Amino acid sequence: MKHLLILFIGLSTLTFTSCSSGASEKVADEFHQKLDEGDTKYIVDNLADSESGVSEDEWQDFLDLVVGWGPQTERTKKTGFSAKTNNGITTMKLSYSFQVEEYGLIHERLVLVDRGEGYKIMIAMMNSDESVVENGTSEY
Question: How far is Cα 108 from Cα 53, in angstroms, rounded to an integer?
Fold first, then answer.
């Protein structure tokens, strides 16, 4: 019986952990789909966090640059995530990697924020040097 309780607690923890990242992962999946389609306006209008201090023009310039790299292939989500809640605002970090013909392996980190109305992308960092991506998002 004791083993069943431990197993239940372990499974419950995994279930709650995976559910807690589900909403942010859906936004990240939509971001990648729209990025692959080149629909940067949709990303700026619907997925980017307007309260993060990054202007719509800055988002558009960044997304245009990324689309200009060409097709992103072999996109892989790295296991795990990082979540923080402070004053009712939740941030979630998700990490990916993908291949671009001209640059090779690119590391990506999305920082999503939920201010009570669903997740939006606060920061998207992409670089061939993983330490640049890690350092650029370490405060979140």
Answer: 20
Q: What total number of domains does the chain contain?
A: 1
What is the domain extent for residue 41? 23-137
Looking at the domain assignment, is residue 116 inside a domain? Answer: yes
7 lies in some domain = no
**pTM exceeding the 0.85 threshold for the entire prediction:** no
Query: Would residue 111 count as lying in a domain?
Result: yes
pLDDT in tens, the chain (140 residues): 444 333 333 333 333 333 457 999 999 999 999 999 999 999 999 999 988 889 999 999 999 999 999 999 999 999 877 888 888 899 999 999 999 999 999 999 999 999 998 999 999 999 999 999 999 999 88
CB 76 within 8 A of CB 96: yes
